[in-house]
Amino acid sequence: MSGVNVGGEAEWVAALTHGSFTAQLGPKGKSVQDYQRLEFLGDRVLGLTIADWLYNNGQEAEGRLSQRLNVLVSRQMCASIARQIGLPEHIRLGKQARDDGGSNSDNILGDVMEALIGACFHLHGFDAARAMVRRLWAQAVGGQAGQAKHPKSALQEWAAGNRRKTPEYRLVDRSGPDHAARFTVAVGIKGVGEVEAVANSKQEAETLAAAEFLRQFG
């Protein structure tokens, strides 16, 4: 999947193991490692790798670099990469989490992708982990990901440019278990209108709502 030497099998298995899998094992599960610690490590390795990559890739200003970085290391991007390499079928989930669609959850897929990067770093060092990220993220970095203005920023500028109030976001609903949560967010501008959007995270729902607002009223 990742294109790296799979030495240290226990680390890779841990990177694919969700907490619900260990929980269903009862007392025996205490000796089984899930992906949380590796995800913590991989998140930092991914951020540094992408930041260094973007810095050396051109002469963009800090604001543009930050914009692209935020998109390229986002939960949604990590989940997208995870799907591209076929991760969903390999994740170890508890029965309830799997029945709830956990194997296709952006939150879980994003975490597992970062955990795999963390496992690679822990087993083989930074150079190997960086090579793994550069291989898997090559298309995203080389393409337009993060180039366009973020919908929330674009909506903020649209409101200011049209002498409107600042956009206001509010959480309308949160449903589903933690591993497969669904957030409904509304964004409105006084005197213009309001729209709603649903996503696996509050941040993504806000982004989708902003984009939909611009589509309808922009």
From TrEMBL:
Alphabetical GO biological process terms: mRNA processing; regulation of gene expression; rRNA processing; tRNA processing
Key words, A-Z: Cytoplasm, Endonuclease, Hydrolase, Magnesium, Metal-binding, mRNA processing, Nuclease, RNA-binding, rRNA processing, rRNA-binding, tRNA processing
Active-site positions on this chain: 43, 114
Ranges for domain DRBM: 150-218
A single MF term (Gene Ontology): ribonuclease III activity
Enzyme Commission designation: 3.1.26.3
Cofactor(s) it depends on: Mg(2+)
Residues where Mg(2+) binds: 39, 111, 114
Subcellular location: Cytoplasm
Catalytic reaction equation(s): Endonucleolytic cleavage to 5'-phosphomonoester
Keyword Nuclease annotated: yes
GO cellular component: cytoplasm
Similarity-based family: Belongs to the ribonuclease III family.
Subunit: Homodimer.
HAMAP family assigned to the protein according to its UniProt record, in alphabetical order: RNase_III
Protein's recorded name: Ribonuclease 3
Organism: Novosphingobium umbonatum
Phylogenetic classification of the source organism: Bacteria, Pseudomonadati, Pseudomonadota, Alphaproteobacteria, Sphingomonadales
Gene designation per UniProt: rnc
